[in-house]
Amino acid sequence: xxxxxxxxxxxxxxxLFAGLLVISCDDDDDAAPEExxxxxxxxxxxxxxxxxxxxxxxxIASAVDPDGAGIMELEVLNAIxxxxxxxxxxxxxxxxxxxxxxxxxxxxxxxxxxxxxQLFYSFTNNVFAxxxxxxxxxxxxxxxxxxxxxxxxxxxxxxxxWMTSSTPPFTGSFTTRLQHQPDLKSATTGAxxxxxxxxxxxxxxxx
Length: 207
Prior knowledge:
Layout: H1 2-31, E1 44-51, E2 58-64, E3 75-76, E4 80-82, E5 87-96, E6 104-105, H2 106-112, E7 117-123, E8 128-130, E9 145-146, E10 160-164, E11 170-180, E12 195-206
Parallel strand pairs: 4-12
Antiparallel strand pairs: 1-2, 1-5, 2-3, 5-6, 5-10, 7-11, 8-10, 9-10, 11-12
């Protein structure tokens, strides 16, 4: 009888120990940190302004990160020089060129994840006839002519249209800011919501 009782006790102890192991594993799973959103490495940004009436008239403004994944930020290389009273379509090249044998098209990734991204703009007041004003970085409801929307109908900004002023000459500034807004983006989110992937300010000349 003592032997049987001893065997029963050992079995109960084994079951209790196994139960504690399962609970401990569940606790470890619950305590695991949430996966963070991966930050894209961006080494090259090209703003491509194409005259909508003459596709051969293309103006490119560029920024490059001189040390790749190092501590330095993207540096603007040149000004934006546009003609007066002219409509341009703005598109982008955004690249990770750290490995020249495997260049990543970040603009394509932004397009694929367009419900998490939006480009916002700021520019010298009334340098453009359309959109008028000074952009939507300070106020997301201000005018920018977006030509692309995500699946929810919210603006993206990889394709926009700009009509320059008819009163030359004009020198001002043009800022583009890419916001990453996973689980945040809506019709009312602005340039301070989410994380900034890049913010670039160019000298803008309209002559």
